[in-house]
Amino acid sequence: MSGAEETTPAAPGATPPNTPPAGTDTTPAATTAAEKAPADKAPGPPPTAPVTAEAAPPASAPLPAAAGRTAPFEVWASRLTAALPQAWRRMPFTITVIALTLLLGLVGRTIWRPLWQEGWFPQVAYGVPALQEGRVWTLFTGWFFAITPGQYVTGLLLFAVVVGACEIRMGTRVVAVTALAGEIGGVLLASLLVWALSHTSWPWAVHLATVRDAGFTTGALTVLAVTTAALRSPWRLRIRALLGFYVLVGFLFEGTLSDVAHLIAVGVGFGVGQRLFAVEPGFGPRTRRETRLLAFAGLLAIALTELVVLLFPGRGPFGETAGRATSLLDVLIDLVIVGIVANALRLGKRWAWWVTVVLGTLNVLVAVAAVVILLVGGVVTDEAITLGTGVLWLAVLVVLLFNRRAFRVPIRRRVPGGVAADEGDALVRARALLTSVGGSTMSWMTLWPEMRFYFLRDGRGYVGYQRHAGIALALADPVAPQGTIAAAVTEFTEDAERGGLTPCLFSVTDTAAEAARAAGWRTVQIAEDTLIDLPGIAFKGKKWQDIRTALNKARREGIEFRVVTLAEQSFAVLAQVRAISEEWVGDKGLPEMGFTLGGVDEALDPAVKVGLAIDAGGSVHGVTSWLPVYAEGGRVRGWTLDVMRRRTDGFRSAMEFMIASACLAFGKEGYEFVSLSGAPLARGDDPVQLDRTDRLLDKLGGALEPFYGFRSLHAFKAKFSPRYEPVHLAFRDEADLPRIGIALTRAYLPDATPRQLIAAGFSGAGKEPAGH
């Protein structure tokens, strides 16, 4: 092969290809002998000239531009060649059609020349003239051409992406039959319809009956329409709505023969696909959220269509859209106003529903009046726009009127029945429920002052949540009797949506995650709960060497461990605890975090146990707080670690000492386990556990790592050889993730200002994680 040779660098620690093995003589004499060895004994082609040490470039010199890498074209070509066999096995129909289309385009020169300029254009193009001339074969041959080179390229890309993906999902036989039937049937029915209408006085139909066309988009759109039936919500409705809007707008404002064929083929494809391949019944939205998003998208689509038609006028069934009286400024103002109303529809606002219904009704009435005027021989200004937008508004009105219950959110969004912790006896009720029915290792955190409570209708449980950025961010599993968690998730979801909020479950166990998945939600592991079983614990064996060292060192230095109720301690002890906490927070560059991270105020609760490392002089070297984990019936079955801080100039192994001492003390009292809790936004490195949607949370955890050391904290807890239980985030679909990320940031950093966040982002790059 001519050109630069590809060189592959040796792996670290490996012997470079031209390096003699260890022990080989590399003196000049040995080198000369090697150079004089017969050529037939050396593998590979002989070098053209010997390379001496003097001629070699220095080790630090850059390689030539072509050395050490393959030319981009060669890389691209090799990867494409390697992928072809697998692509052929999965998409034989798609690849065959693309290959034939490219071949015919090259032979006929239509890749770079407009098809209509060729003398044989009437022989391959379909339309009413072709049927009148008896050229039925054009229904098939027109598939492999396009009118212009631009349409050729875009149509080919559309076919490759859409039909290829559908073939992988639906199978080759289904896609091949659907594409052929959709292309041939759609074009045939469109041509016959236009032919019939051309006998009337409708100018659009009369003109279209003289037009020949070509292209392969009708079959591709038919395949997509049929495949939507095999998709699950919410993507089933979203793709159908987008596809339906596309073909409807194309028909109303462009009105080419292909647009007519698209409308017919997609409509039939929806029906046939639903009949043969449906995985869910019906065509309507399944949830309030789908309904709201559909109305939101429809209203925005109408406004954007008005803008596009103004900038790129065309000629549709109702006439030309050029020369309209509305200015660009008027359209932009309308777009802003409609955007505000549409966003309120997305949130389910009652006032937005009324405004949209009134606007839609007026537009439909204007369109009906325009039809009446035209029928009696009158003149209507901008009749194409008036009638076209009237049809679009009618579709939006149907969605709004048949799903009006999805738009009952008052001006202020809230979960119906949700109350703040400081409202009335809400906190007392929640605490009584938690101590009676029990909860997970993080349930006690739902009793903190920043939380809100959604009490279940049967009064036997609650969901603790915070409200940020339109997200109802529920923390931990619902506090409810065993066997009712799934029902609690469903009830909370329904009322959150009814209040215009997007529900989300954060830091839940497998039980709640499975309930969410059963309801069609997505889940992703965001942390690992680290549990230490207490029965029989003694910290014996090699794996506990570090822990025993910390215990022995504390004994030698006179460090004592005490389990206390912090609120009952002396002022001197409490002042030292606050000073340690404030020193820890002050070193971060950000305010103290909340949500799943408590502080001294939360540790002052009499139900919380606090562990202190104190020397003989009364100096506090470290503090830990332990939250109770209740079982059904009011029994405390374990404790969850919350506050975990030490004095920077104190006993270095205070953390290991305090946690190990707490485990021994709790074990003697008969408790089942302690949870070292899951470091927020941190988890193990097992790639099997990761999901593509984790990236948002990974970025948030990575950004805060230099300041709070979540991931190093997770690694520290591994010293205690715990068992792990996954902690999950449950959400409805990926579209919610950006706002969930904002909600989590506000929940964890409620007091952080934008200036602090920006400053922390620039200062945290080289900062070491906090010690533990």
UniProtKB/TrEMBL annotation:
<feature type="compositionally biased region" description="Low complexity">
    <location>
        <begin position="21"/>
        <end position="42"/>
    </location>
</feature>
<keyword id="KW-1133">Transmembrane helix</keyword>
<feature type="transmembrane region" description="Helical">
    <location>
        <begin position="237"/>
        <end position="254"/>
    </location>
</feature>
<dbReference type="Pfam" id="PF09924">
    <property type="entry name" value="LPG_synthase_C"/>
</dbReference>
<dbReference type="InterPro" id="IPR024320">
    <property type="entry name" value="LPG_synthase_C"/>
</dbReference>
<feature type="transmembrane region" description="Helical">
    <location>
        <begin position="325"/>
        <end position="345"/>
    </location>
</feature>
<keyword id="KW-0812">Transmembrane</keyword>
<keyword id="KW-1003">Cell membrane</keyword>
<feature type="transmembrane region" description="Helical">
    <location>
        <begin position="174"/>
        <end position="198"/>
    </location>
</feature>
<protein>
    <submittedName>
        <fullName>DUF2156 domain-containing protein</fullName>
    </submittedName>
</protein>
<feature type="transmembrane region" description="Helical">
    <location>
        <begin position="140"/>
        <end position="162"/>
    </location>
</feature>
<feature type="compositionally biased region" description="Low complexity">
    <location>
        <begin position="50"/>
        <end position="64"/>
    </location>
</feature>
<feature type="transmembrane region" description="Helical">
    <location>
        <begin position="260"/>
        <end position="279"/>
    </location>
</feature>
<feature type="transmembrane region" description="Helical">
    <location>
        <begin position="204"/>
        <end position="225"/>
    </location>
</feature>
<feature type="region of interest" description="Disordered">
    <location>
        <begin position="1"/>
        <end position="64"/>
    </location>
</feature>
<dbReference type="InterPro" id="IPR051211">
    <property type="entry name" value="PG_lysyltransferase"/>
</dbReference>
<feature type="compositionally biased region" description="Low complexity">
    <location>
        <begin position="1"/>
        <end position="13"/>
    </location>
</feature>
<feature type="transmembrane region" description="Helical">
    <location>
        <begin position="291"/>
        <end position="313"/>
    </location>
</feature>
<feature type="transmembrane region" description="Helical">
    <location>
        <begin position="352"/>
        <end position="378"/>
    </location>
</feature>
<keyword id="KW-0472">Membrane</keyword>
<feature type="domain" description="Phosphatidylglycerol lysyltransferase C-terminal">
    <location>
        <begin position="432"/>
        <end position="730"/>
    </location>
</feature>
<feature type="transmembrane region" description="Helical">
    <location>
        <begin position="93"/>
        <end position="112"/>
    </location>
</feature>
<dbReference type="InterPro" id="IPR016181">
    <property type="entry name" value="Acyl_CoA_acyltransferase"/>
</dbReference>
<feature type="transmembrane region" description="Helical">
    <location>
        <begin position="384"/>
        <end position="403"/>
    </location>
</feature>
